[in-house]
Amino acid sequence: METTVFLALGLVLLVFGAHWLVKGAASLAASLGISPLVIGLTIVAFGTSAPEMAVSVGAAFAGEADLALGNVVGSNIFNVLLILGISALVTPLVVNQQLVRLDVPLMIVASILVLLFGMDGNVGRTEGAVLFAGILAYTVFLIFQSRKENNAAVRAEYEGEYADKDTDGSIHYVRDGALILFGLFLLVLGSQWLVESAITIAQYFGVSELIIGLTIVAAGTSLPELATSVIASIRGERDIAVGNVVGSNIFNLLSVLGLSSIVAPHGIAVPAVAIGFDIPVMIGVALICLPIFFSGYVITRWNGVLFLFYYVAYTTYLILAAVQHDAMKDFSVAMLVVMPLTAIALMISAYRYHRLKS
């Protein structure tokens, strides 16, 4: 009972910590004259991934590599399938062309890179440094790219959400600094409680820390992304809803996993089951974004239903595998038939759309 309470409290602290960290950082950046577009693309997208960073780095320090890896992989799957699925059900989501041309391909490349780095059973410190260098280069590129943004609708959307709304023109450095520090404090404390509770639960039920990381921890640390994207879709800020998810996934792979691999004493161990199933699923989820996003640059409600179906299927598979249920074999065969058919249908849909358009 006590462990469950600390798990819940840890999740609550992570959500509020990320909220105040993003609020303080975005306001401070706006006060310093940083473009709201840059704030939206970097501080907000990366700030909502702060719980993943806190949990994975904390787990890496504690030597719990399975939890650190499961948190990143599970969060990326959760972000696309569940968050975009729910957001698209609220309203069809507009996809910025830059996402299709740059960000989604980068998410795919980073996912494949993690698979290649983990093929030997470990993402070492050198490989972690390569991943972390990637997020630095990506951030610099975004800053320069945002200065060239000439789409009035996109700029207005980010201005409306992230511009400094102070009417008196005062700069609240102390307030923003306090919010940032308090947010970081809550993130550190929440991640510590969450990691310790998750490990205890895994040991009690005899479930691997990888499974706990892929499910409970991944869903919990992705709550800020869920709140940000769903609220953005309700408000009609559809670019933000999609950009937040893709930006967070890139940050998870390059920064969270990269830094976790650097601080871990022996890098991040990658179990064979993650190489054989979970990371390929993450890559497949990233790949499926291309034909969906490419079809009219809109994520429709039908696409949202499809995303949600696959998240339920993925979670069902993990549960069946964990308890070694008799239905596991039939379920696996069914998914092996459904998944290729879905991919073919999406490719044909994207091809038809662009053929008609041309």
CATH class: Mainly Alpha
- CATH architecture designation: Up-down Bundle
Q: Which H/E pattern describes the elements?
A: HHHHEHEHHHHHHEHEHH
Q: What characterizes the major β-sheet?
A: 2 strands, antiparallel
| Rg over CA atoms | 20 Å
What is the CATH topology descriptor? Answer: A middle domain of Talin 1
**Number of separate domains:** 1
> First CA to last CA: what distance?
61 Å
**Helix content range:** over 70%
Strand order of the largest sheet: 1-4
Overall shape: globular
Can you walk through the features of this model?
By secondary structure, the chain is an all-alpha fold. It has one domain (2-357): A middle domain of Talin 1, CATH 1.20.1420.30. Helices cover 83% and strands 2% of the residues. It contains 14 helices and 4 strands. The strands form 2 sheets. Strands 1-4 form a two-stranded antiparallel ribbon. The relative contact order is 0.20. The model has no long low-confidence stretch (mean pLDDT 82).
List keywords for this structure.
single chain, globular, 14 helices, 83% helix, 4 strands, mainly alpha, A middle domain of Talin 1, 358 residues
In short:
The chain contains 14 helices and four strands.
How are the elements arranged and paired?
Blueprint: H1 2-31, H2 36-47, H3 50-61, H4 65-90, E1 93-94, H5 97-118, E2 122-123, H6 125-147, H7 152-162, H8 173-205, H9 209-221, H10 223-234, H11 238-263, E3 268-269, H12 272-294, E4 298-299, H13 301-323, H14 328-357
Antiparallel strand pairs: 1-4, 2-3
Helix pairs in contact: 1-2, 1-8, 2-6, 2-7, 2-11, 3-4, 3-8, 3-11, 4-9, 4-10, 4-11, 4-12, 4-13, 5-11, 5-12, 6-11, 8-9, 10-11, 12-14, 13-14
